[in-house]
Amino acid sequence: MSRQKKRVAVLISGRGSNMLALIDAAGDPNFPAEIVGVISDNPDAMGLTTAASQGISTASFSRSSYASKEAHDAAIDAELTRLKADIVCLAGYMRLLTPDFASKWAGKIINIHPSLLPLFKGLDTHNRAIESGMRVHGCSVHFVTPELDDGPVIAQAVVPILPGDDSDTLAARVLTVEHKLYPLAVRMLATGKVRMQGDKAILSGVTAEGALMSPGAAPDAIDIESLARMTP
C-alpha cells in the first residue's frame, strides 16, 4: 500500500517562484507530498493567481484587516487547520511570525533563506555576501523558530561568487538552486528523513549528497537525482 501523501500549505507574499517549484515537484506521482493550499498576506500577490490556475485552494489575509499581529496569525492558523496541513512552507513570506504561531507549528514549518545560515540572516543577503569577500554563497532550508532565520538547518545549496558578480547576478544563481533545494527538503521532511529535536535538525537515512548541493559554476547542469540520493 502506498504511503499517504503529506498535506503542504505554502505561505507567500509575492510572485511565489519557490511555491511554483514545490507545485511542480508535487506534480510527480512519486513525490511524498501534495500542495493543498496557498496563503498570502498580500491579496494582490501574483503567486495566488499562479496557484489558482493550478487548481490549488488560495486565501489571503491582509495585515491591515486585523487589529494585531496575533489576530492576523490566528486567522492564518485557522486556515491551516481547515486545510489539515501537515507541513507549512514559507516561500517569500515577508512577515515575521508571532512566537505563539511559530511554537505551535514547531517541527512542521520550514523556510527557505537566500544565504548559508547562520551567515547573513535577514535581508540583502547577496550584496552582503559579496561585500564580505565570500567566495561561496547559497541558500538554506531551515525549521522556523520564533527567532528570525535562526531555526535548525535541514539542507543547503552552495554556489560560487564569481568575479564581476553583483547582487542581481548572484541572486539569479542562488534562485536556480533554491528551486531544487526546497522540494528536496520537503521530501526529506515528508518521508521522516529529517525532524526537529530541540535546536537540532536530526537526519535519518540521508547521504551527504542529500543534505548539501554543490553545483559549482554551472547550476543549470545539476543532476538533482544524483545529488538527492537517499538510502531507504
UniProtKB/TrEMBL annotation:
The active site is at residue 113. CDD domains: FMT_core_GART. N(1)-(5-phospho-beta-D-ribosyl)glycinamide binds at residues 16-18. It catalyses: N(1)-(5-phospho-beta-D-ribosyl)glycinamide + (6R)-10-formyltetrahydrofolate = N(2)-formyl-N(1)-(5-phospho-beta-D-ribosyl)glycinamide + (6S)-5,6,7,8-tetrahydrofolate + H(+). Transmembrane segments: none annotated. One of its GO terms (molecular function) is phosphoribosylglycinamide formyltransferase activity. Keywords: Purine biosynthesis, Transferase. Its EC number is 2.1.2.2. This is Phosphoribosylglycinamide formyltransferase. It comes from Aquamicrobium zhengzhouense. The lineage of its organism: Bacteria, Pseudomonadati, Pseudomonadota, Alphaproteobacteria, Hyphomicrobiales.
